[in-house]
Amino acid sequence: MQYHEQIVNLANLLKECNYNFALTGAGISTESGIPDFRSPGTGLWTKIDPVKAATLSALRRDPKSFYEINLPRWVTFTEAKPNEAHVALAHLEKLGYIEGVVTQNVDGLHRKSGSEKVWEVHGHFRTCHCMKCAVSYPFDLLVTKFNHNQNPPLCDACSGVLRPDVVLFEDQMSEDFSQASQALSGCQLMIVAGSSLQVYPVANLPRLARRLVIINRESTPWDAQAELILPYSTGQVFRDLMTELGEPL
Fold first, then answer.
1. DSSP result, 116-141
2. Looking at the domain covering 37-79+125-166, what would its CATH class be?
3. What is the CATH number of domain 1-34+82-122+172-249?
4. Predicted model pTM
5. Which residue, 41, 75, 204, 224, has most beta carbons within 10 Å?
6. What is the pLDDT of residue 232?
7. Whether the Cβ atoms of residue 194 and residue 215 lie closer than 8 Å to each other
């Protein structure tokens, strides 16, 4: 099937189905300058061992090293800007083609682009909290403390170690995950964009959709169940999709 025919088919699926969602992963943000995790040669986990760098036990064992390794990278996430794929999904929600976005990403770019219904199943970098007394603070405070040589950043109330409100390896899933699972009940069409569908339990979410489209450069375990597979840039696909729908970006 030629590329343009795939775009036409995707547009038709969105028109035919009336309870649709997007499920996004790191690949949708690479065009915003944020590296994904598993692409050969460039993926983050090909350079950093996640078991050593981004686990709850690593934070508890050596919070100073945890922040030295992770915080500079996380700050770049907060400085990134939405790309065409993020903007297109926000428009698709406003136009009624999708109900909302379930995202594995912690970069906040869907909200920045104007999406209103966003389930951030792995958390976000807007806030942090104390691991000892649970008091919540803006994430910017944690960054400021680190930049002023307080490593690890400490709670103003009890001097406990602060941690960002993201889901680390070994953490429990966020409340957004259970809410997303409920919202997806009855999903007619799920568009997976930029996810390898290898991280569980999120990788099980496509089972809740009646029909499935996958936009991802690398193959996924769900390819055999997908009606359409578009191994292209998410920005390109969503830009062309919006043009096909008569709503060019």
1. SSEEETTEEEEEEEETTT--EEEHHH
2. alpha beta
3. 3.40.50.1220
4. 0.91
5. 75
6. 97
7. yes
Can you tell me the distance from the alpha carbon of 153 to that of 79, in angstroms, rounded to the nearest whole number?
A: 20
Please give the structure tokens belonging to residue 125: 């970098």
Is 86 a residue of the active site?
Answer: no
User: Can you give the pLDDT at residue 111?
Assistant: 97
Q: What is the pLDDT of residue 1?
A: 81
The parts of the chain modelled with pLDDT lower than 70 are: 36-52
b/e for 30-49, b at 16 or more Cβ within 10 A? bbbebbbbbbeeebbeeeee
Q: Cis check for the bond before 35: say yes or no (omega within 30 of 0).
A: no
Domain map of the chain by residue range? Answer: 1-34+82-122+172-249, 37-79+125-166
Query: What pLDDT, on the 0 to 100 scale, is given for residue 63?
Result: 96
| pLDDT of res. 54 | 80
21 forms beta bridges with: 100, 190
